[in-house]
Each structure stands twice: as structure tokens, then as C-alpha cells.
Amino acid sequence: MRNKSLKIYIVALLPILLLAWFADTSLAQNYKDCMRMVNIQDWTNAQECVKKLQETRPDWYYPVYLEAKINRGLGNDEEFLSLLKESSDLASGDKELFPIFFEFTHFYYTRWRDKSDQKKAEDFCVQGKSVATEKVFQQRIYGICGKIAYRTGDYKSAEKDLKKAYDLDKNNPDTAELYIRSLLKLGKVDVATNILEAAPKNPNTYALLAEIYIKAGQFKKVIQTTDACLKMDRQAAKCMIVGADGYIGEKNWQEAIKLLQRYTMLKPKDWLGSQKLGDVYMQTRNFESAVEYLTISVQNTPSAECTPFISLAVARENQYLLKNKNKIFLDGAEAAIKEALRRCPGNSVALGNKERIDKRIEDLKRPDQVEVNCDELKNKNLPECKQLEEKERQSKLPPKTVPK
Length: 404
Description:
Blueprint: H1 2-39, H2 43-56, H3 61-73, H4 77-90, H5 94-111, H6 115-130, H7 135-151, H8 155-168, H9 173-185, H10 189-198, H11 203-216, H12 219-232, H13 237-249, H14 253-266, H15 271-283, H16 287-300, H17 307-322, H18 327-343, H19 348-364, H20 383-395
């Protein structure tokens, strides 16, 4: 009799259990559909999807959380923060609280307008860590907490958090990059180098590794590293300029020129790239091209920087010597060195160049110093102009290579 009653009870309960299971399955699928629309930024359909989800489960935190993410995507910051707070009141358990704390942390880290945003990012970072009970949660929170610490200059904390994130996911080149930067900031060059050599590569990690090789004077390794970088991304500007430094270290001026020409086309207003190219052209005694790029460099040089003006003064002085002492080039050299010293008073290199240029100016005042403009047709056959023509021709020949 008892068994018969139990069978009747199970038969009566089964439809209810099945209905509940199908309802939960349907709800979970609806949530996944809504999340997919949010992830692909299909905001209009996502809003409709979330609205239906809320009508089905008004007490559930997920629809409110998704609505918050939609508002962030639409740029409604205040509504986003309000809804995220509301979703945190409805949430319970680490799995539900973690994404909320992570969203808060990420929002204040990316906005970061002032000290208040910084403080909130740091506070939510701590809360996020407290509920990061799963590996995937720990990867995300330690990664962003490391970024926050790095931005504030707390490199010890950055190293600690980023090491945890990197150890949990060694296939993430962005985490590896910032972890290595933290190590370099702390002077742990050997540790950083070992990690860099084994870490997954992106253009930034390749460039970092090449910079370490530059400091060590390992120019062939610089070239190999930046070549690999540029095979990954032909537009990786940092690898172009560091790769050029490798060729400069090897005194391979022509290859350095090729890379720096690509770099200056990509970043025409970057003063450093133009200065490097101008300096390399001076090594090949192509002073006209040197002046062209150094002029571009000084037009974009920061107010506290003076080295491009020193280089321009030297290039103009060499033009003066090659152009049969045409004073227009010496005037250009004098103007450039004066500007260099205005920006960097007391700079020993600039002072040495000024002393030499001043002496050339004084020499021009001697009666035996007669200026001849060899660019004028009537002077082409003068002996000094023929000598100058031969000197210019020799200066434009490719430099002789010494067998290694």
C-alpha cells in the first residue's frame, strides 16, 4: 500500500520537476542569447532580450547586470553605475559578485579622471580579489590590479599581481609585457630577460627584448629580434626604430636608413625618428638629406630637448665646408647651435660646436677669405669650384665596407 502511494506521489511530482527543469534550461539559454548580443555590441536587440529576461525573473541579478553593461556600451556612465550597484544588491555568492566587482574596477581604471577614480579602482580591485575563487577570475583581477599598481608607480605591487596573473596564464602577451616592464622598473634585468625570451610574443614584447639587447650591446640579437617582430607586424613602429639602432650599432648605415625611412613615413612628426635618420645620413656624408630630416626633427622637438639642433648645426657646418664656404650654411649652423644652447645652457657638446663655428665665422672676416658661390654658372670652371665638385662627388660614393 505504501509503495503504491509513493508511486502515485512520484508520478504527480514528475511533471512539476520536468517543467521546472525546462524552465531553467530555457532561462539559461535566454541569458546566453542576451550575453552574446552584448558581446557583439548589438545594443538594440540586447535591450529587447534583457527586457524579456527581466519580465521572466525580476528578482534575478543577471538581467540587471546585463542592462548595466549595455548602458556602459552606450556611454551612459551614470546609468551604468546605478544599475551595477543594483545588480550587486541582488547578487549572492562569489560567482555572481565577481563580475560586478570586476566591472567596477575596469570602469574606474579606464576612466581614471582623478584621484577619486584611482581610489575607487583600487578599492574594487581589493573586493574583486576577495571573491576571485576561480582560476579564470584570478587571471582577470590580478591582471587589472597589476595595471592599476603600475600606473600609480607602485612597481613592487605591480610585479606581485602581474606575476600571479602571468603564472595563471602564460599565453597572454599583454600580461607578460607589463609584468616584464615592472621587473625592468625594479632593475631586475636578468629576470626580465629570461621571462622575455620564453614569453609569448607580440610586437611590444619583441621591442622590449630588443631594447635589453641594445643596452647589452648585442646588436645582432637586436636585428634578429626586430626582424621577427616585423614579420609579425610590418607596421610595428617601435620595432623599426629599435631595429635601426641595431643596424647603427653594427655600422650598417644603408639598412638603418631603410628602416628609418619606413619609420618616418609611418610617424612623420616623430622628432626622434627624423633625428636618427638625419644622423645616419651624416655618417654617409649625405649632408643634404641629413639637413632635410634634421629640419623636420627640430620643427617637432620638445622644448626641453636640444640634441637635434646640435646635429643640424653639424650638418650645416659640413655643408658650408663642402659648398666652398658659402656663408648661408654657416649662418644656419650658427642659428641652430644658438637654439641648442638656449634650450640646454652649459651642454658641453653644444659648447664645443659653438666654439668651432664661431672660429669659422671669425676666419671669414680675414681678407684672404673670399666667398665664391659655385652654384652660379659663371663660377663653374674656377679651380676651387672644380675641386669642390670632385669633393662632393667623392662624398656621395657609398662607404667602403671592411671585411669581417
